[in-house]
């Protein structure tokens, strides 16, 4: 039964992250998820200092709050002339460093279990179950990540047109009266929520990988956003299933194996995509040259 739960949790993370990842890839902000997963450390430490408790709920609230601060700072720097990749790098390294300092100064003698909070292991997720009246209703991760996935689907479904126009042409969206900044923060808020809801249970590497790799792969396979979202979700699900069994055969990290499979799929698409594949492009070029020679 644990096999089923692990694969389901991986698939939910993949789908939840892929929906948002497509918009991040189009906006050239794929590394926002990675930034959030590192920059939440000061939020975790501050939550402990204020509450005096190592309960995961308080730490996740602190992480979510700093995640939103991260998004705000990145956008503020971009609006004031700093390039996107530079603003992401500056914010997450600075906040992560502040978190390290806070740990060394205020929590040196306390086991905050930061490895668990920041880099959880998906193999252990099925053991943390949601119980009411002594009855188990499945792993907590399924409910948390599943809830984030449904929320993402609901918001993207309701405002799909607005998100699409804002991603492709913000100037046109503003001319049509669409509040571009508002939808940017809504999207970034969903990324923050999804990242924080996922990484305690499954690990940061799985969250960051699933935000970037399936969406980047789907980008090479289609020119239509709706198809890109569906393809990225399918790639994420396939990666979760194949990655689990690969980890079982190799006795390796499950999250690492899932992302390795996703990376292998990306490599194949990069080489053999009908429109963007490197090998296909060279083959077409050689064919054209040979036809012209005739």
UniProtKB/TrEMBL annotation:
Endoplasmic reticulum listed as a keyword: no
UniProt keyword Transport, yes or no: yes
Record SUPFAM superfamilies: ABC transporter involved in vitamin B12 uptake, BtuC
Membrane topology value: Multi-pass membrane protein
Location in or out of the cell: Cell membrane
TM region positions: 6-26, 31-50, 56-74, 86-107, 140-160, 172-196, 202-221, 228-248, 254-280
Key words of the record: Cell membrane, Membrane, Transmembrane, Transmembrane helix, Transport
Protein origin, superkingdom: Bacteria
Alphabetized InterPro entries for the sequence: ABC_BtuC-like, ABC_TroCD
Gene Ontology terms describing biological process: response to zinc ion; transmembrane transport
One GO location term (cellular component): ATP-binding cassette (ABC) transporter complex
Gene3D superfamilies per the UniProt record, alphabetical: ABC transporter involved in vitamin B12 uptake, BtuC
Chief site of localization: membrane
PANTHER family in UniProt: ABC-TRANSPORTER METAL-BINDING PROTEIN, METAL TRANSPORT SYSTEM MEMBRANE PROTEIN CT_070-RELATED
Family: Belongs to the ABC-3 integral membrane protein family.
Protein name: Metal ABC transporter permease
Organism of derivation: Bacillus salacetis
